[in-house]
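# step 3/5: fold
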Amino acid sequence: MNEKIEEREYEIDLLELLKMLLEHVWVIISVTLLAGILALCLALFYMPVRYESYTTLYVKNANGPTTSSDETVRVALADINASKSLVSTYVVALKSNYVIDETISRLTQKYERSGKLEERAKYLEHERIEKMYSLTAVDDTEVLKITSRTTDPEVSADICNTIADIAPDFLIRVVGAGSVEVIDKAVADPEPVEPNVKKVTVLGAMLGFLAAAGVLVILYLADNSVKNTDQLTKKYDKAIIGEVYNFLQERGEKKKKLKKGEHRDTSPDNLINDSTVFTLAESYKTMRTNTVFALSPFDKKVFAVTSANAAEGKSTTTANLAIAFAQTECRVLLIDADMRKPTQHKLFEKDNKTGLSTAISKMNKLDACIRKNVREGLDLMPAGPIPPNPSELLASQQFAKIIEELSEKYDYVIIDSPPVNVVSDVLVINNSIAGAMLVTRYAATTYDAVEDALKKMELADIKMLGFILNDISKPHAGKYYSYKYKYGYKYGYGYGYGYGYGTKPAEDAKDKA
C-alpha cells in the first residue's frame, strides 16, 4: 500500500452544527430557564435593596437681566452660559470634604433628636456618605441635580436635603459667584430602584442561554468524531463503500434497555430480511454494488471488514453485507475471524462448537466447521471455541491454505475481523485477502482512531477498499437521534487466554438451550 495518509484540514459543517443545537434545544431551554430562576432568586433574596431620592437646585448668575432690549437678550444669553459653567464648578465644590463632614454633623444632630442615631449610625461615615450621593447637570442646563441612593429611603432623602441646605451659603462663600435656589425638596420614595428584578432575571436568562449554547458549540468544535462521509473522503482520499442509517430510527422504534452483558449489535433483529425497511435494505444493496466495483481489479474475491475500535457496528454490517451478496444468487461464505469475541454465531443463532479455530488447528474437517444456508445462498463459518493464540492461528500457513481452498468454492468470501486498533489479528492476514473495509460509527469513531487504523493497515500492506459509515442519525419527526452503545469489546491482558480449545461452560449451556 503505497498511498500515504495526507494531513488535511476540513471545514466546519454549519448544517451539522445547527442540527446539533436543535438536538440539544431542550438542554439550552432548561439551562436558560434555570439561569433565569437563579437570577430571580438572587435579585429577590440576596441583592441589597436600594432607594433613591433627589433634589434639584437652580444655578443663576448674580447679574441677571432686568430689561427686554436686544442688548439685554445678548447679555442674558451670556449669563445663561455663565450659569452652566457655574454648575460644573458647583459639582466639584459640593463633593468636597467640608460638605461631607458638614452633612454628617447635621444628620447626626437630627438623628440624635429623633432617637434614630443608633440604627442609622452606619450611614454616617465619611467614605460611605461620599459614595451615597452624586451631582449632575440636568440636560446641560443651569439645573443641578443631587441624587442619593441608600438602603433606607428616609436616609436618601435626608442626605439630599441636607446638602441642598448647605449649598447656598457654602457656594457663595467658596466660589464667590452666582447663587442657587432649591427647586424642590427630596422625598422618601418607598419603591426601590435596585435591584431591577426584571432586568436581572432577563440578563441571567440571556447569560444562561449564551453559556449553554457556547458550551455546546465548543464541545462540537472539540468533537473529533466522524459525522460526514465527504470529510472522510476529502481527508483520506478513500472511497465511501456505503452509509447505513440507525436501525432503531429507521424502524421507528425507541431505544430499549439492555440486559447486563447484552449488546444491541448482536441481536438477530438487526439482520436484513424481506420485511426490512426499504432504506436499510437498499443501503446494503448499494454497499454491495460499491464493493463489487472496489474488488473488480482483483482476481481474489476475498476481503475483510474491520473497524478502528470496538462497538462500531462492524459485525452487524459484515453480516448484512454478506446477506446482500447472497441475494444476488452468488455463493457467499461469511467467516467470523474475531476469535477473541465471536459474534456471527449469535447473529445467525447458530452453535459455536466448531469453526475457524478448530479448522485451523485441524480438530475438525473444513466442512464440519461451516453452517450451510444460514440464509439462502449464504454459508457461515463461526469463530469456533476461543483459542489461546488467535493471532498465531490467523498468521499460519493453514489459515492461508483454508482461505485459498474456500475461495475456489465460493464467489465471495467475507471475513469479519477484529478492530485494527485493539488487536493485530487483521494485519496478519494481508496475504490472504484482496483488501479490507473500515467501518466507522457516526458520532463515535474519531478521526484520530481512523488515522491510526489506516497507518497500521498501510504498514501491513493491506489494501484499503473504502469506508463504511454506520449508525447514521438523520432528521426524523423534527428530532435528531444519536445512540451510543455501552457494551463492547474488552480486550486486555489475559482476555480470551487460558481457555484452551474447549468452549466455556456458560456458552455450552447457552448453545444447548
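# step 4/5: annotate
Residues 61 and 370 are 113 Å apart (CA to CA).
# step 5/5: archive (pending)
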